[in-house]
Each structure stands twice: as C-alpha cells, then as structure tokens.
Design a protein that fits this description.
The protein has 529 residues and is of the alpha+beta class. It contains 15 helices and 12 strands. The N terminus is likely disordered. One of its GO terms (molecular function) is phosphorelay sensor kinase activity.
C-alpha cells in the first residue's frame, strides 16, 4: 500500500505543482501592482516601500522563471527548496509591509500547505517551523526600529500555531486522499485486467459470438466467428454482405423469436453453422447477440456414439452370423467336390460359395469399422504427404494407371495420416474403377488448394468417367448402398465417417460434361480436435 500511495502522489504531483506555480505567478502580479503608490493608497501602509517594491518584482520574476522551468514533478529536495524560497521571499515582503499588522503573514499559509501536499513524509512540518521562525524573527527585528511592533508577538505566535495546524491537517487530508485514490486506481486496474481477461476468453472461445446493431451492422465479433464465416475481419460489415444465410435467419428470428433457425453454409465447402439469437439491451437501439456454433463438432460426437453402438451390435452378431456362414460355405465346397452331383447343381454350389465369400467380406468390413481406433489427428503438410502417396500409388499400380498431382506448397491441416491414407485409397480405387476397365489406360487427378474464402485446405479426387446418375446421388454415402453386384456399399460410407471423425467433410460434385469430383474439406491447422 505505501508503494501504491507513492505512485499515486507522484502521478498527481505535476498537476498540483502546475496549479501552485500559477497561483504564485498571480500572487506576484498582484503584489507588484501594489508597488504603485496611487493603487495602494488607503489600502496598505508600508514600513519600507523600497524593499517592498524590490522584493515584489523579484518574487514575480523568480516565480515566472520557475513556472517555465519547473513544471514537472521533481524530487522532494527540489520541492523543499522551492517552498523554503517561497517562505523567505514572502517573509521579506511581510517585513516590508510592516509585519503582522499588514496581514501578509497569512500568505505563508499557502507555501506551508502546498509543501505538505507535494513533499513525502513529515518533512513538511519543517516548513511550518521555518515559517513560524521567519515571522517571529522578522517581528522581533521590526520591533527594534518600530516600538509598536512589540504588541504583535501574540498575533505572530497564533499565526505560527496556525502554520503547524495547517501542516498537520493537510498531511492527514493528503494521506486520506492518497489512500482513496490508490484504492480507486487499484480497482480500475483490476477492472481493466478483468476486462482484458474477458476479452481473451471470448476471443479464444470455439463458439462464434457477434453483436449486431440496429442497422444490421456487426459491432463486435470474436475470432471464432470470423473463422466460421470465412472473413479475416468482420467488424463493421453489414450482415447481408457477410453471410446471406445468416442475414436470412436473423430476419426470420426478428419476425418470430420463437422460431428455431435451420443450419446454413456460408459458402461452398464451408462448415455447417447453426445461429442462435438473443436480444441485447442497448442505448444505441435494438442490438442482437448472435451465437454461431460449428455443427462439425456435434457431428463428430454423434459419429463416435454411432460407431460405439455399431461396435456393440456387430460384436454381438458376428459370432452368430460367421459360424453358420462358414458351415454353409464349407458344405457347398464339399458338395461341389462330389462326383455324383449334376453339372447344374454344381453351378448352384459355386453361386452359394461366391455369395458366402461376399457376405463374409461385408461382415469383415463392418467389424473393421466397429473396431476402428479413435482418430489421432496430427499436424501434417498435405503437399509433402500427397507426393509420398503418389509415389506409393505408382509402385502399387500398373503403368496403365496414372495419377496426376496438382498441389500447392505448405498446405497444412490436422488429420490422422493412417485414416487419410485409407480414405484416399478408397476414393482413388473408385475413381479408377469408373475411369475404365482394368488393363486400359486410366487417369485420375488429385488437386490440392486453399479455399479463397474460408482459408481451409481442400483436396479433390477427379476422374472423367461416366459420373454418378442423378437418381443415386442422394444415397451414395449411405451404408450398404451399391449399384454393383460385387460391391459392399461401405466404401464411401466409411470414407465419410473417417473424414468426419477428423473434422473434415467429404462431398461429391458432378463435373461437366462428364466426370466426378470427390472433395475433402480439411480442418483448419489451428483448430483443436
């Protein structure tokens, strides 16, 4: 507390000293005005007019000089010297004016009071003692030449007591003022720190927060809101220019606050965002507090629950299905090896074995999905990772299959590398299968870039095959949905599940005039998964 009080008085010292200097200059001006005999006639009887004139002009000159040079808070020794100089100069004027009877002794109260405000500790009492000694000594010296001055000792003694009373009172008052101001400054510092902490918490929240004014203009927004809406700076923007979907849902809510707004995408490939609104009282008109939530995390949690349920289901039925299926397949194999079986029945036995193998593959795929370990996202450079993937692809496929890679540099994201490899293997296999028959010259393309609006990494797997018919587009990511007799219908479903578990999105887009594009929108590299 003493250290804080010292800082407070040091902070206020220049202002107090400036006021004190102005007072001294004004006082000096009025004292010099009284040097004119015509002006002081009837007001003041001087004991020594010559000394009074000299002391007054010197007092004015020295105060103007000090006001110009000494206008900042200095150390205590300088302020003490300034107060002592003021006491001695006013004491000489006190003597020239005729002593206590002139009333000029009251002028020494201000230097005593100002000194006790500006100087730390009890050194200010020395100023009161010095002022008392100056007035008593000058009264004594004045009584040697003016016998009537002897009667002024009592008045001078009372004046000295007043000096000490003023010094003690000002010290006590200054101490209380310093304590009050120190407490106010500490509270202001605490409030400022709390405000910074609140701003930091709001900025670091994953929920986007915006304050929209009455003219549909964004007044405040945190970093999460800017990232979701794909704009580096959204403060000051109109909601219509920022996000059409958000503006539509804001108007819907304003027309009917009880309505539950639907999620929206701010742009192609952007995250699915849910907006909630709350009125905010304000002097500037109708203000709305907007909360933006990225549904990716909610979808990821639902995905984990879905996989857990699927794991329990498949674990419970795998044994019941695989054992009878194995018995059926083994019996069909033995039946086909019999010499007495007709050719027509032998064909039926092969069909039984073929579909038993297919059914066993479906069960293994589902079991692999249910037993899949949780994703372990890592910060990876997609550019380097795809170059390695393309080299591995070239070594594991015939020369008739080509993979063209178009990738920028330093494209970073967070994803499990093993799961990304599984997704790309599946997507590239599908792209090759639809690009032509095995053994023919087939080409697919991988295109990596940063989305210009959302700043999110995007990877496209492109082929120029026949594409997917429009009637099948709504079902391509559903489990067990396939248009082929040999497929399981789980490839795209598993790929999307793996992407969602890493906060990425897998979408399909048809190409014109023909072809397919599987687009993966990755998470931002700074996003915590």
């Amino acid at each position: 507390m003493p250290g804080a009080m010292t800082e407070v008085i040091d902070y206020q010292r220049p202002r107090i000293l400036r006021i004190y200097n102005i007072y001294r200059v004004i006082l000096g001006f009025f004292l010099t005005v009284l040097t004119s005999g015509a002006l002081r006639e009837g007001l003041l009887e001087l004991n020594n007019p010559q000394l009074y004139e000299t002391a007054s002009w010197f007092y004015l000159f020295i105060n103007v000089l000090i006001a110009l040079l000494l206008h900042q808070g200095k150390r205590d020794v300088y302020l003490f010297v300034l107060s002592v100089l003021d006491i001695f100069l006013l004491g000489s004027i006190f003597y020239a004016a005729g002593g206590a009877g002139s009333g000029f002794g009251n002028l020494l109260l201000i230097p005593v009071a100002a000194g006790n405000i500006l100087i730390h500790g009890r050194v200010g009492l020395l100023l009161a003692a010095l002022a008392s000694l100056v007035t008593i000594y000058l009264t004594f010296y004045l009584s040697l030449s003016t016998p009537g001055a002897v009667q002024s000792y009592l008045q001078v003694g009372v004046l000295g007591g007043i000096y000490f009373a003023v010094a003690l009172f000002v010290q006590r008052l200054s101490k209380r003022l310093r304590q009050s101001e120190s407490l106010a400054q500490q509270q202001a510092t605490s409030l400022a720190s709390l405000e910074k902490l609140n701003q930091l918490i709001i900025q670091r929240m994953r929920t986007g927060i915006m304050v929209v004014g009455g003219k549909q203009r964004v007044l405040l927004a945190n970093e999460a809101a800017a990232q979701m809406l794909g704009k580096p700076i959204i403060r000051g923007m109109d909601v219509d220019d920022l996000a059409i979907g958000l503006a539509q849902r804001l108007r819907q809510w304003q027309n009917n606050p009880a309505i539950r707004t639907l999620p929206f995408h701010n742009h192609s490939g952007g995250a699915e965002i849910t907006a909630n609104f709350k009125p905010l009282p304000s002097d500037e008109g109708e203000t709305v507090l907007v909360f933006l939530d990225d549904n990716t995390q909610v979808a990821q949690q639902a995905q984990q629950l879905k996989l857990a349920s699927l794991g329990r289901l498949t674990a419970s039925i795998a044994h019941e299905i695989r054992n009878p299926l194995g018995a059926i397949s083994h019996a069909a194999q033995l039946l086909s090896e019999s010499e007495q079986i007709p050719v027509q029945d032998k064909r039926l036995s092969e069909i039984i074995q073929q579909h038993s193998k297919r059914m066993n593959k479906v069960i293994e795929t589902v079991l692999e999905l249910s037993r899949r370990r949780p994703s372990e996202p890592q910060l990876i450079d997609l550019s380097l990772w795809l170059e390695h993937f393309a080299e591995t692809f070239a070594l594991s496929h015939p020369a008739t299959d080509r993979l063209e890679l178009e990738a920028g540099h330093n494209v970073m994201t967070r994803m499990d590398p093993n799961q990304l490899n599984q997704v790309l293997d599946n997507l590239c296999s599908n792209a090759l299968r639809y690009s032509g028959a095995e053994g023919e010259h087939r080409s697919i393309w991988l295109k990596l870039y940063i989305h210009p609006e959302s700043n999110l990494p995007i990877l496209e797997v492109i082929d120029h095959g026949p594409g997917i018919p429009e009637e099948h587009l709504a079902h391509i990511f559903e489990p067990f949905y396939t248009t082929e007799t040999s497929g399981t219908g789980l490839g795209l479903y598993i790929s999307r599940e793996l992407c969602e578990s890493n906060q990425a999105r897998l979408e399909y887009e048809p190409l014109v005039p023909r072809g397919s594009c599987m687009r993966i929108t990755f998470a931002h590299p700074r996003r915590l998964v």
